[in-house]
Amino acid sequence: MTSAALSVFASIPSPDVSSISLGPLTIYFYALCILLGIVVATLWTNQRLTRRGAEPWVVIDIALIAVPLAIIGARIFHVVTHPGFYFGEDKDFWAIFRIWEGGIAIFGALIGGAIGAWLGCKWTGIRFWSFADALAPGLLLAQALGRFGNWFNQELYGLPTDLPWGLEIDYPNAAWPAGLPEGTLFHPTFLYEVIWNVMGVCVLVWAGRRFGLQWGRLFGLYLAWYSAGRIVWESIRIDPSEVFFGLRTNVWAAVFGVVVGLAIFFVQRRRHLGAEPSPYQRGREWSAPGAVQSQEADDFVDVSAPPTSEASSDQATSSVTTR
After folding, report:
1. The predicted structure's pLDDT at residue 9
2. H or E, element range at 204
3. Is residue 247 predicted with pLDDT exceeding 70?
4. Do 154 and 169 contact (CB within 8 A), yes or no?
5. How far apart are CA 231 and CA 257, in angstroms?
6. What is the mean pLDDT of the chain?
7. What is the DSSP string of 134-174?
8. What is the DSSP annotation of 48-97?
9. Belongs to which family (predicted)?
10. Amino acid 60: pLDDT
């Protein structure tokens, strides 16, 4: 068997359909993957935040603001980084608002979602960094699930490859590179990112428990991990993108993400030496069963939860945790 035949035999097929019709309603699998990711992230974040002492399902109040702003941010980022799709004499300007036709960017979703989460935390009294740390593993898992939508849509694949796990793409395809013959296989960048993100979820859960990462440090680790992977996957993708100084816009965004993530991690490590006293802002605490209010420090103390290893060393020398 030739190497070409072996590659085709072992290649990854793409789905034949990307949507189903229920009468007049068309349901796109891409949308279902995104929605599944949102549900999973919400449920897991609720479980993690409640375990810290937050009111059950307060995450819903935050999500009501964060999710819409994340979608808006994702669309704006896509339009700004792909102006040729929407601006020009032969372009339809109003296509900017037809988001159901496709075109969202995860880095824009992170910016919009962060703004929405900050507003939601101000509304509910939750500390922003407490929410961000609780969200981090679930968000990365949601991004892994969302990438299966790209598989259903046969989009955002990488360079041609003869590796056994090359991705089959239907021919003709609107994104098919000119000059490549039918039957060419491509790097399955969606799968690479799924694997990287799932690995990252395991790293975040382990690191959070092992080192008691709080005050946004777990979120900083998430941002650095995710963005580092995107630098690689974006570098081998062949879909149209604006290029600045030889790099795609999303590569620059990913580099920025790594820098911001590391900055959050190390700055917060330097600023806050102890554990968070509560997931709530001062004076906004929610009294849960098994919790008492400290009159001396005016901070929430969950007596049912053991202190982290990081917290125990600080509490041995000070009765008031650094805020």
Report:
1. 55
2. helix 189-211
3. yes
4. yes
5. 10
6. 86
7. HHHHHHHHHHHHHHHHHHHHT-S-BSB--STTPEE--SS-T
8. HHHHTTPPTTHHHHHHHHHHHHHHHHHHHHHHHH-GGGT-STTS-GGGGG
9. Belongs to the Lgt family.
10. 97
The CA distance from 46 to 52, in Å, is 10
Neighbours of 302 (CB within 10 A): 17
pLDDT of residue 56: 95
- Binding residues, by number, are 147
Q: Phi then psi for 20, rounded to 5 degrees?
A: -130, 150
Q: pTM of the prediction?
A: 0.84
DSSP state of 126: B
Bridge partners, residue 21, by sequence = 26
Least Cα distance to 153 among 30, 27, 20, 21 occurs for 30
The answer to whether the beta carbons of residues 35 and 42 sit under 8 Å apart is no
Largest CA distance in the chain: 77
How do residues 132-176 score in pLDDT, each as one tens digit?
999 999 999 999 999 999 999 999 999 999 999 999 999 988 788
- Element (DSSP H or E) covering residue 109: helix 106-124
pLDDT tens-digit map of 5-33: 444 457 999 999 999 999 999 999 999 99
Q: What is the pLDDT of residues 285-297, one digit of tens each?
A: 887 555 554 433 3
Work out the number of other CB atoms within 10 angstroms of the CB of residue 273.
Answer: 15
C-alpha closest to that of 285 among 6, 39, 43, 52: 52
209-214 long-range contacts (CB < 8 A, ≥24 apart) are 211/309, 211/310, 212/275, 212/308, 212/309, 212/310, 212/311, 213/133, 214/129, 214/130, 214/133, 214/272, 214/275, 214/276, 214/308, 214/310
Tokens encoding 272: 């806050």
